[in-house]
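User: Reviewer 2 asked us to show a designed sequence for the structure in our supplementary figure. I'm pasting the structure tokens here. Could you produce the per-position amino acids so we can include them in the response letter?
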């Protein structure tokens, strides 16, 4: 089943970033997007995840064009079905890690998975304030928060940027297992070719186009 379908997307800020980009994501599938810094990868992810309106083209989620959806329906889908793990973490800074997870759990009516916290190696720091954690720990708390919601599509921007190779691979294992178990899908931006190769499809954003690499 198709989770996401983007057709003929174009977008410019000061200059044209990309044009006529199309992309599909099916259940159980992962897509990696690579490309040099500034090529527009994060912008594309923002468009696919409903945060930004493209200049032209359309994005459908779960078979429905989002441009035709009313605000309430779109924000419900965003809250319940989409999991966003972005370059800046969007954690509530004044709260502890646990409180951040509890907010996600309450909003989505799901339980916090203790085992997930152990695997992300944040179970020991869960009572500390977010501001007292390292960048990599904050990143893993934000991953735990997103997975606690149990979204159907994960949008992940440079998930392993702050992590050493071993921890990065462990975090990726968690994402891939999550997709398998929940029949979810993932669109991931990464600079790491090795990690990109773990995805089902790899695309490169180059010369304003999205080119299939493998
Ligand atoms: N909100 C914005 N307003 C104006 N320009 C923007 C905005 N967001 C991004 N840009 C510009 O668009 C270009 C692409 O940015 P984007 O963040 O999508 O690149 P990226 O491929 O994700 O880069 P990186 O690998 O460094 O994260 C950059 O030149 C950036 O300055
Ligand atoms: Mg980026």
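Assistant: Here is a per-position design you can include in the supplement:
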């Amino acid at each position: 089943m198709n989770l996401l379908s983007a057709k003929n997307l174009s977008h410019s800020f000061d200059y044209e970033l990309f044009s006529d980009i199309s992309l599909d994501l099916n259940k159980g599938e992962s897509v990696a997007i690579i490309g040099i810094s500034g090529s527009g990868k994060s912008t594309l992810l923002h468009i696919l995840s409903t945060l930004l309106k493209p200049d032209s083209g359309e994005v459908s989620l779960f078979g429905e064009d989002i441009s035709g959806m009313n605000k309430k329906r779109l924000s419900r889908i965003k809250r319940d079905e989409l999991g966003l793990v972005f370059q800046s973490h969007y954690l509530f800074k004044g709260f502890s890690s646990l409180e951040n997870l509890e907010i996600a759990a309450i909003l989505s009516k799901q339980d916090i998975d203790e085992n997930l916290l152990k695997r992300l190696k944040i179970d020991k720091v869960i009572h500390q304030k977010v501001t007292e954690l390292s960048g990599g720990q904050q990143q893993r708390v934000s991953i735990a928060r997103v997975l606690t919601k149990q979204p159907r599509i994960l949008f992940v921007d440079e998930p392993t940027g702050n992590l050493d190779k071993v921890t990065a691979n462990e975090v990726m294992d968690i994402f891939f297992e999550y997709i398998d178990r929940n029949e979810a899908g993932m669109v991931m931006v990464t600079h790491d070719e090795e990690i990109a190769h773990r995805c089902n499809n790899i695309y490169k954003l180059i010369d304003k186009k999205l080119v299939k690499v493998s």
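For the response letter, you might also mention the following. The pocket of adenosine-5'-triphosphate (ligand 1) is lined by residues 13, 17, 35, 37-43 (CB under 6 Å). Residues 136 and 162 are 5 Å apart (CA to CA).
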